Amino acid sequence: MEIDLRDFEPFYTWIGHAVILALIAVPVLSFVGVVVGYIVSAVRYGPIEGAIAVARGIGTAFAHDFRYFSLRRTVAIARVAMKEAIRRKVLVVFVVFAIMFLFAGFFLDTKSEHPARLYLSFVLTTTTFLVLFLALFVSVFSLPSDIAHRTIYTVVTKPVRASEIVLGRILGFTAIGTLILAGMLVVSYVFVVRGMRHTHAVDGALEATEGPDGERRWQGVTTLDRHHRHKFTLESDGQGSTDIVHQHWHSVRRLEDGTVVFSPPRDHLIARVPKFGRLRFLDREGKPARKGVNVGYVWEYRSYIEGGTEQAAIWTFDNVREADFPDGRIVLALNLRVFRTYVGEVKKPIRGVLFVEHPDPTKNLRGGPIPFEAKEFQEQLLYLPRKLERYRPTGRSSETLDLFKDLIADGRLVIKIKCDDSAQYFGVAAPDVYIRMPDGYFSVNFLKGFAIIWLQMVTIIALTVMFSTLLKSPVALLATVVTFIVGYQSAFIEKMAKNELYGGGPLEALIRIVRQDNLMVPLELKWPWLEWVIKTLDWVFAQMLYVFAALLPSFKHISQMTEFVAYNYDIPWAIVAKFGVAAAGYLCVFSVLGYFFLKSREVAG
Amino acid sequence: MATDVAPETEATASASGQPVIETRSLTKVFRDFWGREKVRAVRALDLKIQPGEIFGLLGPNGSGKSTTIKLILGLLFPTSGRALVFGKDATDARKNERIGYLPEESYLYKFLNAEETLDFYGRLFNMSAAQRRERIDELIDMVKLNWARRRPLKEYSKGMTRRIGLAQALINDPDLVLLDEPTTGLDPLGTDDMKEMILELKARGKTVVMCSHLLPDIQDVCDRVAILYNGELKEQGRLSDLLTIRDEVDLRIKELPEEGRRELEALVAKYGSEIVHESRATSTLKDLFMKIVRESEERPGKRAPGAIHQSSEPR
C-alpha cells in the first residue's frame, strides 16, 4: 500500500490552503461562468438583450431565489425524489449486494496471508462501486424524466425555486443512498467479523519443555483450519498464546479436564494509529543525500540503502511526548522491503541495526544499536526501551541513556536504520517506519471508511443532478462518467501536464501508435514545425485538462482512503474532516451550477 | 398560505387596476439544433386579461395556444416581447404564489396517491401541516374523489386524473387559474362539473384563463375570447360583442296572435326590411371560429382584430 504523507497533514494547515484556493477559484470560476452565460445568452437574444437577461438572472438569484429559499419545499422535493427512487426499485441493489455476500465466501481466497485485508478490501470495494453506481443511476434519470414526462410543469409553476429542485433532489437521493449504505455497513461488518471468526484444536500431543527459569511449559501445534495452523505455548498456569499467522493469533487456555481451548482470532481487525516521520538519507560515505539507491524498479515509492556501508535512512518524528507513552517504551513499526543482490540462503533474513540519535548532531548522543532481522511483507514491531546503552564506535560503553530525557529533545525523536548485510539492500519509504500509538477501535475505523464512501456518494449525486438539469439522461450519464474518470485520473493528468510521462500528449501518442514508435525514442517528424505544432497543441490540451482535473474531486484519492481500513490503519479524523469539507464545497458549487442551468433552460422544450 | 410575496406589490397590483396578464408583442420562435427557424409559434401577441374575467384562448391545433400559456407561466422563454403576470416577469417564481395551473394532461407523479399529491403541492406553497390537511379535505371533496383518495394516480381513469389535476391547481386558492384544455377527456357529466367549477371560481372573483378547441365549452363559460391562428391573434373581444349580429334585431314576443304577426310583417315590409330568421339571433362561437379559420387560410397575414363582425351574409 502506498501511503501519501500529505494526507496526514493536520487539518488546520490543510484548511488554510483550501480556503486560499477557494478564495482564488470562486471569483475566477464565477467570472468564467458569467462570461459563458453571457455568450449563450447573446447568441439567444442578441448582445444587449443577452446582457440584460444575464443581469436579471443573477439579480433574481440573489435578490429572491436564494433569499426566499425554503427548507419545507426542499424537503417536499426530497421526499418525492425518495419515493420515486424506491419506486424505481433501487432497493434491489441492496438485495444484489446481500446475495453477493452470501456467496462471496466461496470465492475469497482464504489461503491468503492476509485474510482480513482481503475481506475488508472486498467489502469496501464492492460497497463503493455499488453505491456509486446506485447514486449515478438513481439521480441521472430523475430530472430528465420529469422534464420528458412533463411532471416538471406542475412543479415549476409553483413558487419553487430552481435551487430547491436541485437541492431537494440531492437531498432525497442522498437519503436513499444513506439508507442503503447503512444496510450495507451492517451486512459488511457482520460478513467480515463472522467470516474471520474461527478456532482451532490441538493437533497431536503437547511437548513439555523446561525454560531457563525452571518453569515447565508445553508447546504444540494446532489443527489446520482455514488453510493455516499455529504453534502455541502454554505456560505453567495453563494460559498461553499462539504465534501470529495470517494476521492473527489466539489465546490458549487449558481447562481443568485437560482439554485445550483456543479463543477466537485476535488482532486481525484493528486500527493501527501511526505517527509518521520525515525521511532523509545518508549516502555510502555517510554524507547527507536526497535519496537512496535506485535498484531498478519502475515504482519509485521506495528508495534503497546498501548494507555494509555508511548508507542509512533517518526518520525524524515530531511531537513525541513522554505522557503519550505511559509504559515508558515506544513501539516502532517497521515495514521494510528487502532487495537481494545475491540469493544466498533465501530463508535467512537480512539483518539491520537501529540507532536512536539526539536531534542535535553536535551533542553526539546516540543510543543503540538495536539489531533486528527484517521480516519482509509483514509488519514487525520493535520496542524502544526507556534505557538505552550509549553507542561508542570503539568498544562497549557502560553508560546508559534515557530515551525521553537524553535522546528526545523538544519532542523530536531521530531514528537511524542501516542494513547490516553487505551487498543486500533495504527498501524504505517515509511511511515504512512509524511510531505505533495505542490502537483505535476497528469498528469506529470501519465506520470512518463508510463515511468516506458516503461523502464520495454525495459528491457523485450532486454532480449527476447538476448535469441532469441541463442534459438528457444518457448525455448526463456520459458527462458524469467522464468527469469521474478525469477526477479519478487526476494524478495521471497532472503528470501529463507537467510533461513527466513518456510518449507525450494525445496527438503525439496518436502519431506514435500509428507509426508504432517506441515511447522512449524522441518524436522525429519530417517537418520540425509540425512537431512544434503537435507538441504545443498537446501542451495546451494537457494544461486545460490539468486545470479541469484540479478542480474536480480526486475520486481515486478518496477511494484509496478505504484501503486504510483494509490495511488496518486508523483513518485520522483529520482526513474525514478534510473530505467532509471538500464534499461540502463541491455540493455548494454543483448546486449553484445546477440552479443556474435549470433556471436558464426552458423546461417545456 | 405562502408568504414569499412582498405585500406592497400585491396591494399596488390590485389598486392600480393592473391587468392580471399582459403580453407585449410576445413572440416565440422555435429553432432547430443549428439555430435555424423551425416554427414561429407566437407572433407579436398583445393581450390584456383583466381581474375577474374568464378568458378563452381559441385556435385550431398548432395555433400557439399552449405555447402562449407556457410563455405566460415561464415554462418557455419569449424570443422577443414580454409576458407579465401580476406585473411581474413570467419567469419570476414569485408570481406562482397566486397562480394555479392545470396542464393539458395532468402531469402528476403517478406513484403518489391523491392525498400525497396534494400534500406535496401544498408543501411547495410552504403551507403548514394544518393548512394542508384542511385544504386537502376541502379539495378532494370538491372534485369528488373522496372514495379514491388513497389510490395511487396510476390507477386513476382519465377523468379522475383531470379532477385531481384541477385540485392541485387550486391548492393555493389562486387568484389566477390557467386551464389548458380543461374538459378534454371528461364525460358530459364531468364536463358540466368542470364548467360549474369554473363559473364558481369567477363568482369568487378569480381570473380564469382557459384554452380549448371545444367551442361549446368556451362559449358556455368565457367572458372574453381571443382567437389565434398560426401564432397570430385574429380576433379578440367580449363574447357577447363578437357573436352579436349588428344588422339584425332579435325580438322575443310572447303570445303574439296571428293578426299581430301579420301586422308586424307588414311593418317590417314598410321599412323595406325582411324577417330572415325567427328563432335565434346570435351566431354560435363555432360559426365565428370556422369563419376566421377559413379567412385566415384564404388570406394569410395579420388581421386586425375586430375587423369582421358577424353579419347576415350567407354562411
Task: Write up what this structure looks like.
- The complex is a heterodimer of chains A (605) and B (315).
- With 605 residues, chain A is an alpha+beta fold.
- Chain A has three domains: 5-196 and 454-485 and 557-600, no CATH class; 207-262, no CATH class; 303-428, Jelly Rolls (Sandwich), CATH 2.60.120.
- Chain A is 48% helix and 18% strand.
- Chain A is built from 15 helices and 21 strands.
- In chain A, the strands form five sheets. Chain A has a six-stranded antiparallel sheet, with no helix packed on it. In chain A, strands 9-8-11-19-14-15 form a six-stranded antiparallel sheet, with no helix packed on it. Chain A has a four-stranded antiparallel sheet with strand order 7-21-12-16.
- In chain A, helix 1 packs across helix 2 and helix 9 (442-468) runs antiparallel to helix 14.
- The longest helix of chain A has 35 residues, at 11-45.
- Chain A is globular.
- With 315 residues, chain B is α/β, with parallel strands linked by helices.
- Helix content of chain B is 35%, strand content 21%.
- Chain B is built from ten helices and ten strands.
- Chain B is globular and about 75 Å long.
- Classes of the chains: A alpha+beta (605), B alpha/beta (315).
- The interface between A and B is large, with 35 and 37 residues.
Main attributes of the structure:
heterodimer; A: 605 residues; alpha+beta; Jelly Rolls; 3 domains; six-stranded antiparallel sheet; 15 helices; globular; B: 315 residues; alpha/beta; six-stranded mixed sheet; four-stranded antiparallel sheet; 10 strands; 35% helix; 21% strand; disordered N terminus; disordered C terminus
Secondary-structure blueprint:
The complex is a heterodimer of chains A (605) and B (315).
Chain A: H1 11-45, H2 47-65, H3 71-87, H4 91-107, H5 115-148, H6 151-156, H7 162-196, E1 202-210, E2 216-222, E3 231-234, E4 239-242, E5 251-254, E6 260-262, E7 271-276, E8 278-282, E9 288-289, E10 303-306, E11 312-317, E12 330-334, E13 337-340, E14 351-357, E15 366-373, E16 380-384, E17 387-389, E18 400-402, H8 403-407, E19 413-419, E20 424-428, E21 433-440, H9 442-468, H10 473-488, H11 490-497, H12 506-515, H13 528-551, H14 555-566, H15 573-599
Antiparallel strand pairs in A: 1-2, 2-3, 3-4, 4-5, 5-6, 7-21, 8-9, 8-11, 10-20, 11-19, 12-16, 12-21, 13-20, 14-15, 14-19, 17-18
Chain B: H1 7-15, E1 21-31, E2 37-49, E3 54-58, H2 65-73, E4 80-85, E5 88-89, E6 99-102, H3 114-124, H4 129-142, H5 158-169, E7 176-180, H6 188-203, E8 207-212, H7 215-221, E9 224-229, E10 232-238, H8 239-242, H9 258-270, H10 285-298
Parallel strand pairs in B: 3-8, 3-9, 6-7, 7-8
Antiparallel strand pairs in B: 1-2, 1-4, 4-5, 9-10
